Fold this protein.
Amino acid sequence: MTFTRSDFARLRISLVAALAMIAAGGSIAWLAAGEVRDATRARADAERQRVEFEGRLKQVRDEESEIRQKAAQFAAMRARGFIGEERRLDWVESIKEIRETRKLLDLQYEFAPQLPLDRAAMAGYSFRGSAMKMQLKLLHEGDLLDFINDLRAHARAYVRVRSCTVSRIARGAIPGDAAQLDADCQLDWITIQPAKEAP
């Protein structure tokens, strides 16, 4: 089969059309690849933003949970009487009730004046402590532990044991005395007071 000039003229139009289609197809493919790259980049950006927002949301939820927990602790402390002016009369009544309930043999104590504690942990509040010296005569060590546990459970203050010295009483030192041990303790009764505002 041989081609003549007229055949080439007819083929030229088809070749030009084919080349134009190839160029158009290449352009469309190039544009589509660019769109895919842009879409991929946009998706990656959106994913980064989603992760960032989820991180911020988690942080806010954690902070909210922490605030709720601290608010609940604060409310419990207020309900227990840890916050506000010290209530020595209530303390004395608590000690008397525990002594009677536990049938302690002998209990002597003395409160020192209230003083500010060195550490101030909360803005707007001050920590105050009243030291208490206490001497008890005991049948056994459990009486002392029970007494301190009862104080902590019922006192309208936070009771911190600073020191306790327990010593055995010599047999027959006090005729008719059933006590076996002497306990000499130092306790702190701690309250939290709202800071007084400056006039």
